[in-house]
Design brief:
Blueprint lengths: L14 H21 L4 E3 L3 E6 L8 E9 L5 E5 L7 E4 L2 E4 L4 E8 L4 H8 L10 E12 L4 E11 H25 L10
Parallel strand pairs: 2-9
Antiparallel strand pairs: 1-3, 3-7, 4-6, 4-8, 5-7, 8-9
């Protein structure tokens, strides 16, 4: 092998050519940097689970496919605490380039107390046939971007009616226990 050390002196730099060479080098660096980032695609950005049924007995499930379209391994995970009516399985994983995984998005009716808290802001009357549940799933890639999937489901009127019945029954029970356990208050000065 032959090595050499050269000293080059410039009298003048052509700024136009210098700018073009610099721009080309920055573009190549950007392409290399982007190729080193994980890249995935989702089969959908919105999932409607439809109508949820019978608490604790049936679950509704749809598939979300995550595909690694990048040149490096993609490490992904669920990045938010989900509401109690929805969950993912699996909720994290590693995908090799061109590998895919099917993630189950599962919806089920939570226990009555939790359901009451979820529906608190919604107004339901006797003409409402369903109540809508919604959630945003946040999936993050290690060293990469963040992806969002909107999940919705409906509760049938029968579940809302049984929830209202439980609410009324617990209100009656708590008012009767309060009146029987609290001492009577006497007002000595009534005019």
């Amino acid at each position: 092998p032959i090595t050499s050390l050269l000293t080059v002196k410039f009298k003048q730099i052509d700024q136009e050519k210098f700018g073009a060479v610099r721009k080309g080098i920055l573009k190549q660096m950007d392409v290399r940097e982007n190729a080193a980032l994980p890249e995935v695609e989702l089969s959908t950005r919105e999932i409607n689970l439809g109508e949820l049924t019978s608490a604790g007995t049936e679950v509704v499930s749809k598939v979300l496919e995550i595909s690694n379209t990048g040149l490096i391994d993609a490490i992904w995970k669920l990045d938010n605490q989900l509401k109690p009516w929805v969950r993912l399985s699996p909720d994290r994983g590693t995908l090799l380039p061109v590998q895919k995984v099917e993630v189950s998005v599962i919806g089920e009716i939570p226990p009555p107390q939790t359901l009451k808290e979820l529906l608190q802001p919604q107004q339901t009357d006797s003409t409402t046939t369903t109540a809508k549940l919604d959630e945003i799933i946040v999936i993050s890639l290690e060293g990469g971007k963040i992806l969002f999937v909107m999940v919705t489901a409906n509760l049938p009127r029968s579940i809302l009616d049984s929830l209202n019945t439980l609410t009324v029954a617990s209100a009656v029970q708590s008012s009767s226990s309060i009146s029987s356990s609290s001492p009577s208050i006497k007002t000595p000065f009534l005019l």
